[in-house]
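Hello again, I could really use a second opinion on something today. Take your time with it, there's no hurry, and the full record follows here:

___
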Amino acid sequence: MARSRTDDQQSHTPFHSRPGVRRLAPFALITAIALVFIFENRESVKIRLLVPEVTMPLWGALLIAWALGILGAVIILRRRTDRHPPRQR
């Protein structure tokens, strides 16, 4: 069975030029740097959010802030894709 031209094109696509990898690579790099920064800061700090004051490890506060940032990015990206359906070729 002969290979079609599209099969040859797909098999020769470099790994780094694939759309999924191009979107995931910056996220993975930033996440790795953020997690190293978060877990290097282990001392306890007082955190005040409007009225309550909490004493907790700094890494915990940074991890919560990082998770909220990721959640916000996911919500924004999901809204964009819902608003603009994929184009048909």
User: Anything to note?
Assistant: The chain is about 60% helix and 10% strand. The radius of gyration is 21 Å.
